[in-house]
Design brief:
477 residues, mainly alpha, single chain, globular, 20 helices, disordered N terminus
Length: 477
């Protein structure tokens, strides 16, 4: 009854707007167009249609709200930070103006609070990225040598300026986080929004950032439980609805993909919060769930490896660190990724030494024969990365004795043998790779490796000839 009354009130209000039939028709067209563009992710076109509609009726609530969110989502598509911030603050201004129209929907409309919370959280995230850059700049300036007293003064001025920017940015993060938290809590205060997934999950992320880990775990666990229910419902709909039309199927498939991406990110955050509380078994469970669901990528393998290392599960940790190194680093990785690479290699070396002393490898492969290949390949990669080529070859030799070698691994062993000057063996392995490589599903870059193998054979043959000539010369009386 309450909603029927609101609907009638809306009709009465619409009749009092003073719009003519032509204007009302145009307004409805702009609304329909903006909605279509918005759902397709074409936010610039949606922004244009919203603004054209608001030129006819500036107080239209749905258009005001949609314009704010279109500005927000478009900002996420931009690479330039200045442009992102311009659209984000445009979204903030628009949504704050929309909040003044919220009386139209009364107590039942939570959407402005949710939208404002999302915008404030994103602004806080941008400030945090800026903080990382500023701290990096500060470290570089502090380490820069000064050739003269004048240069020393300039460095001090730069340090002071960057420190002021850091303090300002830090305050900005805190302010935006507080505002975001306030809006998300208001969403949950609505009776029908007590289980709003987005608000709950954002609060979990906020409490992780402010180091309130007990609250973070509570909100993230609840949110992920609700998200799983939502994913289950969508999956059942997709499996059972044979009569579903193409647009409806696309809608549910998009929602399913969004849910899976969200789960992957948020289980990683939950794992971090559990780790801070030293609940390491539960922390590892989050990564194991992702692995079972096919969501564990190379980057997340780094965090899984940390959890395994902290639990003393060194073989699994070495395997996952190696997966991070092989799959989790993009060619244009940031400094943070290279820091993690160094930490991963150092951790692997420490664990490998302990495992060697305790004979852990033999015990592990005896209990987990299906993981022997992954572990020995990880150790071989590790030893090669630190120049311990004899140990690297030793791992591949053991795999060959176990009949676990394949075409791809012959290439890796050939590289190590070439470094050791064992050219005949390297040529044989390069040749085996050229004959068998790819049978086990060679990753991207296959053609490059085949080229390198051919070059490797030619190089080793040349080095063998040189060695033979040198040997003959040395034998001459």
């Amino acid at each position: 009854m309450k909603y029927a009354a609101l609907f009638i009130f809306g009709l009465l209000l619409a009749s009092c707007t003073g719009l003519g039939e032509d204007e009302e028709g145009k307004l409805n067209d702009y609304k329909l167009n903006s909605k279509n563009y918005y759902t397709q992710g074409k936010y610039l076109q949606a922004i244009d249609q919203c603004r054209k509609g608001l030129a006819i009726d500036e107080d239209d609530y749905s258009l005001n709200l949609e314009l704010g969110m279109a500005l927000y989502y478009h900002s996420a598509q931009l690479k330039d930070r200045t442009e992102r911030m311009r659209y984000l603050f445009g979204a903030l201004e628009q949504l704050e103006a929309t909040d003044s129209l919220r009386w139209f929907f009364g107590e039942d409309d939570y959407r402005v609070h949710l939208s404002l919370g999302m915008v404030h959280y994103r602004i806080a995230t941008e400030y945090r990225r800026q903080l990382v850059d500023l701290e990096r700049r500060l470290a570089n300036v502090r380490s820069a040598p000064a050739a003269s007293e004048e240069e020393s003064d300039e460095i001090e001025e730069s340090i002071e300026s960057i420190e002021d920017s850091i303090a300002e940015c830090d305050d900005g993060v805190d302010d935006e986080i507080d505002l975001a938290e306030d809006h998300f809590l208001k969403v949950l205060s609505y009776e029908r929004q007590r289980e709003n997934i987005d608000a709950i999950l954002y609060l979990g992320q906020i409490y992780t950032y402010v180091a309130n880990f007990p609250e973070a775990v509570e909100y993230l666990s609840l949110g992920l439980d609700l998200l799983e229910r939502s994913t289950g419902f969508i999956s059942r709909r997709l499996e059972s609805e044979d009569t579903m039309d193409a647009s409806e199927r696309l809608f549910f498939e998009t929602r399913l993909e969004e849910n899976m991406n969200k789960e992957k990110d948020l289980r990683g955050i939950l794992a971090n919060a559990l780790g801070r509380l030293e609940r390491h078994e539960e922390r590892l469970e989050q990564f194991q769930l992702l692995h079972e669901r096919g969501m564990l990528d190379g980057a997340l393998s780094y965090n899984k490896a940390l959890a395994e290392r902290d639990l003393g599960r060194y073989p699994e940790a070495i395997i996952d660190f190696n997966r991070f190194i092989r799959e989790g680093l993009a060619p244009d990785s940031e400094v943070e990724d290279h820091d993690r690479l160094t930490k991963a290699i150092n951790s692997m070396m420490e664990m490998a030494k302990e495992m060697e002393q305790a004979n852990t490898v033999m015990l592990f492969v005896a209990a987990n024969p299906e993981k022997e290949k992954d572990l020995r390949c990880a150790l071989a990669d590790l030893f090669a990365s630190v120049g311990m080529f004899a140990k690297c070859v030793e791992q591949y030799d053991i795999l060959q004795a176990r009949d676990l070698m394949d075409g791809d691994l012959y290439f890796n062993r050939a590289l190590a043998e070439q470094e050791l000057g064992r050219y005949e063996e390297a040529i044989l392995d390069y040749d085996l790779f050229l004959k068998e490589g790819g049978l086990s599903g060679l990753p991207l870059g296959k053609d490059e490796r085949f080229r390198k193998a051919a070059v490797g054979i030619e190089t080793c043959q040349g080095l063998l000839e040189n060695r033979g000539r040198s040997s003959k010369e040395n034998r001459r009386p």
